[in-house]
Write a structure and sequence with these properties.
Elements: H1 46-64, H2 66-86, H3 89-92, H4 97-124, H5 128-145, H6 152-166, H7 169-178, H8 183-214, H9 223-245, H10 258-272, H11 286-293, H12 296-310, H13 317-322, H14 328-334, H15 336-356, H16 360-379, H17 383-395, H18 397-410, H19 415-439, H20 444-488
């Protein structure tokens, strides 16, 4: 995934690392005593910078690829209950439809409760790889124990605990990626991470088909119990490797050279105009209070929650595929291709979003495709048409991935605030998953009424994204005016072409317009 890069731009003034130049005499130190200036490993030319950066990203991409496998296991352990239902779980536990929906939704209650505390913790510790590994080991154990439950209360308890522990992974992984990748790289890397989600939807059906069709009655146990035991055991095996492979921070990760770690920090400083570091003396909950005061967060919460309700068909995908009229094994096998298609669409959409640095249309156009799929299923019971519609519905996940990178790029600094914003928006959106579990009780006419509900939710999400884009555009214009005024009044010098200027103080809404900035920060639209 590493790519070529032009030689480094002119060095940043203020809080960026001092330039590393090939010169007989070192440059004079900046006048400020607050300049962020880690000691470079040695003199580095622009050409050397390019070579080191390629090596850094190659190593980083390789190690972060484990996140994809972890996300696959995360989703397998969360959603295998849908496949188990087709092989007798609901009958064996004597669950009615409302109780089954409760078993699905209770997971998100635990998920919501743990996300913000977990991301506060992971932003404070120096070895987040160990934290992720321990969390994964615990949720694998809980998933395994799900295979021994015998009643409704047991299933509710294990599902709640599973959601509580699994909550640490996704916002934690997104935070780690945002500490290493620039805004021009982050959407593609998030897409690769979310391919774990989409691949799990494709392969979970294949794994479930194999287990459910061959393990019935083995050692006297139902096949659906074996499904939980096998997938939970695989999760615990992967967890052990995570402690040794996943990266930690750009300041302390083992396996990188001193040059590579220096360039990693330099890249993140150049990306926004200040060091990716919390202020000295910052208290543990300061990031939370900064997030609460930023009203942009609430717009994203509402839009993302509507989007999540619209995507709730995911948990019922085998049941939706079953409306095509096939038995459970063909149904599971036919559930896989739409998600493989969605994975390909997501990679293309996110790559193009990074290339163009545009977010709104890359979020809303996949939703429009999903809306077409919903409408097809509402107006016809034709088998071929409904199967094509499932492909369109699954591909709407592409915009969901771009949305996550929009969160990171809209709350770039300080990292404590970014960590809480990611967790808070993701946690609030899980209310959409809770509500979504009850949307699909309306089975008449091939879930026509259910499709009507998610159609309206996609419409609300598109409107919310438009509102958020309008807000960011207004803030960008405000920053441009402030910079122009500062230059006109002579308070700061105009920068070289493409370099920007140094401006006043940070805006109340969280925009990065401060004396530490050289390249003018702009929100991505």
């Amino acid at each position: 995934m590493a790519d070529e890069r032009k030689p480094a731009d002119p060095p940043l003034r203020s809080q960026s690392p001092r330039p590393i130049v090939d010169s007989k005499s070192p440059p004079s130190p900046p006048p400020s005593d607050k300049v962020f200036s880690p000691s470079p490993p040695h003199t580095m030319t622009p050409e050397r910078r390019t070579i080191v950066e390629k090596s850094l990203k190659r190593k980083l991409d390789t190690r972060c690829s484990l996140f994809v496998l972890i996300y696959i296991m995360n989703y397998l352990d969360r959603n295998n209950i849908a496949a188990a239902r087709l092989r007798g779980l609901q009958d064996d536990l004597s669950l009615d439809d409302q109780q089954y929906a409760t078993c699905l939704s209770i997971l998100y209650v635990g998920y919501i409760l743990m996300q913000i505390p977990s991301n506060i913790v992971i932003n404070l510790i120096s070895r987040p790889s160990l934290y992720i590994a321990v969390v994964m080991l615990v949720w694998g154990l809980i998933s395994t124990l799900t295979g021994i439950v015998t009643n409704f209360s047991g299933m509710v308890g294990t599902r709640f605990l599973l959601g509580f522990v699994e909550a640490a992974f996704l916002p934690g992984a997104l935070l780690i990626l945002s500490k290493w990748y620039t805004r021009k790289e982050l959407t593609t890397r998030n897409a690769i991470l979310f391919c774990g989600n989409l691949i799990s939807n494709a392969f979970s059906a294949l794994i479930a088909a194999g287990v459910l069709s061959n393990m019935q009655g083995v050692l006297g146990h139902a096949a659906w119990r074996w499904l939980f035991w096998i997938e939970g055991g695989l999760t615990m095996a992967v967890a052990i490797s995570a402690a040794f492979i996943l990266p930690d921070l750009p300041t302390n990760t083992r396996g990188f050279t001193e040059e590579e770690l220096y360039v990693a920090q330099l890249r993140m400083t150049e990306d926004v105009g200040e060091e990716d570091k919390d202020a000295e003396g910052q208290k543990i909950f300061d990031g939370f209070f900064m997030m609460v005061r930023d009203w942009k967060v609430y717009v994203m919460m509402v839009a993302f929650t509507a989007y999540t309700v619209g995507l709730s068909f995911n948990a019922f995908f085998p049941s939706l595929t079953q409306t095509l009229g096939f038995s459970y094994v063909p149904t599971l096998l036919m559930s896989s291709p739409p998600w493989a298609f969605a994975c390909a669409v997501t990679l293309v959409v996110c790559w193009h979003s990074d290339r163009t640095q545009e977010k709104f249309w890359h979020i809303t156009l996949p939703m429009v495709g999903g809306l077409v799929g919903f409408l097809i299923c509402m107006v016809t019971l034709n088998t071929a048409a409904r199967y094509v519609a499932l492909f369109l519905q699954a591909s709407s996940y592409a915009g969901f991935v771009v949305f996550y990178s929009w969160i990171s790029s809209s709350f770039p600094r300080p990292p404590a605030k970014r960590a809480v914003a990611l967790a808070a928006i993701n946690a609030f959106s899980q209310l959409g998953n809770v509500a979504g579990m009850y949307v699909w009780d309306l089975k008449e006419d091939g879930y026509r009424k259910s499709y009507g509900i998610v159609t309206s939710m996609f419409g609300a999400a598109i409107f919310g994204c438009w509102v958020f884009r309008t807000i960011l555009a207004r803030l960008n214009r405000q920053m441009e005016r402030e910079e122009a005024t500062a230059v006109a009044e002579g308070r700061v010098p105009a920068g070289e072409k493409g370099e920007g200027v140094v401006t006043g103080s940070e805006t109340e809404d969280g925009g990065v317009v401060g004396p530490r900035m050289v390249r003018p920060f702009r929100y991505l639209l």
